[in-house]
Design brief:
Layout lengths: L4 H14 L3 H10 L16 H18 L14 H4 L2 H21 L7 H15 L20 E4 L6 E6 L5 E6 L3 E6 L9 E5 L1 E4 L2 E4 L4 E6 L5 E6 L3 E6 L4 E6 L5 E6 L5 E6 L4 E5 L5 E5 L6 E6 L4 E6 L3 E6 L7 E4 L5 E6 L5 E6 L3 E6 L7 E4 L5 E6 L14 E6 L4 E5 L4 E6 L6 E6 L5 E6 L3 E6 L5 E6 L4 E6 L5 E6 L4 E5 L3
Antiparallel strand pairs: 1-34, 2-3, 3-4, 4-5, 6-7, 8-9, 9-10, 10-11, 12-13, 13-14, 14-15, 16-17, 17-18, 18-19, 20-21, 21-22, 22-23, 24-25, 25-26, 26-27, 28-29, 29-30, 30-31, 32-33, 33-34
Helix pairs in contact: 1-2
């Protein structure tokens, strides 16, 4: 049997598509020139790559289990990584046999007391498993008690995003189960009612579930409407009672981000089709489509009610204005895809973060970046500015920017000085989300270590911690600053009540 690199590439491409990694499949397809191969995709069965890997595993398993003398060795079932290291598997089998023999002699049987023997065995296992046990992850003095956490169950897949309504305690969440949900946390009941916003598409004259992830959501400023963006290529506007107000269809492929402007008359979206679109919220029509990126657009943020910035996997940032047919400014300097961009509260400075592990600050007054902040050791996934204005921590202080990275840390930056003022290091896995409290005094962070940590922005000290049941994708504060919402990879959404 022989195979070409084209055939391998096609099977990988098909696997990415079937697994729902559409963005990765799209980019991989372009880079590996899938469209130029002469493979007839219609003839390739589903799950072809997994099927052929499974057969390879069975062959390798058989090969390892037969000794040189033809005798059969008993081996544990192989993982995929095992299969590429047959020598390691053989030596591991040997070690396991020796260890089992040692454990049998070391664990005493206490008068035939099976329960006690099991307890000793468990104790041995936990002592040998390192210092990152469940009880070590959260500092007991700051741990949020269970009665202060409300777990919201209903989603059937990972929950990527959540956002509080700006005027009332309604929490919206968006999931891989092709629904968004609105949870009413106003009455403080232990089982809040949920509205299910089903994302459907027209097929053969009937409405069917889109079966695509809800990737983004945003409330308008007065909390009367919720916009959602989906992998099915549609943006949708919903009312607070769960009714669909309008469907916005112009993107060709998944939508990665969407935002309302402050005035509430326009919605801005970014998609895999390399374009950004300004939509008229009242009519649901596309007002203007901007096609300046050469690769998928990953994030957008309004600078004013009619100008915005967009970033892309093409490493570029463009500032565009409604009515203009070219970007009014373009920023280049990142050396890998730009994951997120955020304007400061006044719209003067634009922050960007990238897979190139840097955080950059840009100004409309110059072409090169104002600050190139290099301290993280892995990709930076997201950034947030501290709030400003009366009643906030920053009324008389410099602007603070928070960055969350796959290096498991969060950093707080004094942007005026271009200096890192705090490095927050209690997480043990990639940090996907950060959010400032409305008064700017606290920062919530959510990580794939399942923990939500709440920090003092002045001292950098950890003040509250809660460990959920899944990796945390998003954290957010309600408008009063007394509740934190979080959404997780196991389908759970939870609300932490921080009132004394």
């Amino acid at each position: 049997m022989s195979f070409t690199s084209d055939e391998v590439n096609f099977l990988v491409y098909r696997y990415l598509q079937e697994s729902g990694f559409y963005h990765a499949a799209y980019v991989f397809g372009i880079e590996s020139h899938i469209s130029q191969s002469n493979i007839n995709g219609a003839l390739v069965p589903p799950a072809a790559l997994l099927s052929i890997i499974q057969k390879g595993l069975q062959y390798t398993e058989a090969e390892i289990s037969i000794g040189e003398d033809g005798s059969e060795r008993l081996i544990d079932s192989l993982s995929l990584i095992d299969a590429v290291m047959p020598d390691v598997v053989a030596s591991r089998q040997q070690q396991n046999q020796q260890q089992k023999a040692v454990v049998k002699t070391e664990i005493p049987s206490t008068n035939g007391d099976e329960g006690n023997q099991g307890a000793v065995a468990k104790e041995l296992i936990s002592c040998n498993s390192g210092t990152t046990g469940e009880n070590m992850d959260v500092d007991n003095s700051v741990e949020i008690p269970l009665n202060k956490a409300t777990i919201l169950r209903g989603h059937e897949s990972e929950v990527f995003i959540c956002a509080w309504n700006p005027t009332t305690d309604l929490l919206a969440s968006g999931s891989g189960d092709s629904t968004a949900r609105i949870w009413n946390m106003n009455d403080n009941s232990t089982s809040p009612n949920q509205l299910v916003l089903r994302h459907c598409i027209q097929k053969g004259g009937t409405e069917v579930p889109s079966n695509k992830d809800v990737t983004s959501l945003d409330w308008n400023c007065d909390g009367t409407l919720l916009a959602t963006g989906s992998y099915d290529g549609y943006a949708r506007i919903w009312m607070t009672d769960g009714r669909l107000a309008s469907t916005l269809g112009q993107h060709k492929g998944p939508i990665f981000a969407l935002k309302w402007n402050k005035k509430g008359n326009y919605i801005l979206s970014a998609g895999v089709d390399k374009t950004t679109i300004i939509w008229d919220a009242s009519s649901g029509h596309c007002t203007q489509q901007f096609a300046f990126h050469s690769a998928p657009a990953l994030d957008v943020d309004w600078q004013s009610n009619n100008s915005f910035a967009s970033c892309s996997t093409d490493q570029c940032i463009h500032v565009c204005q409604l009515g203009e047919n070219r970007p009014i400014k373009s920023f280049q300097g990142h050396t890998n895809e730009v994951n997120a961009i955020k304007w400061d509260p006044q719209g003067n400075l634009l922050a960007s973060c990238s897979d190139d592990m840097t955080l950059k600050i840009w100004s409309m007054r110059q072409d090169t970046c104002v600050h190139d902040l290099q301290a993280h050791s892995k990709e930076i996934y997201t950034i947030k500015w501290s709030p400003t204005g009366p009643g906030t921590n920053n009324a008389n202080m410099n602007l603070i920017l928070a960055s969350a990275s796959f290096d498991s840390t969060v950093r707080l930056w004094d942007v005026e000085r271009g200096a890192c003022i705090h490095t927050l290091t209690k997480h043990s896995e990639p940090v996907y989300s950060v959010a400032f409290s409305p008064d700017g005094k606290f920062l919530a962070s959510g990580s794939f270590d399942k923990c939500v940590h709440i920090w003092s922005t002045q001292t950098g000290q950890l003040v509250h911690s809660y460990k959920g049941t899944g990796g945390i994708f998003e954290v957010c504060w309600n408008s009063r600053g007394d509740k934190v919402g979080a959404s997780a990879s196991d389908g759970s959404v939870f609300v932490l009540d921080l009132r004394k």
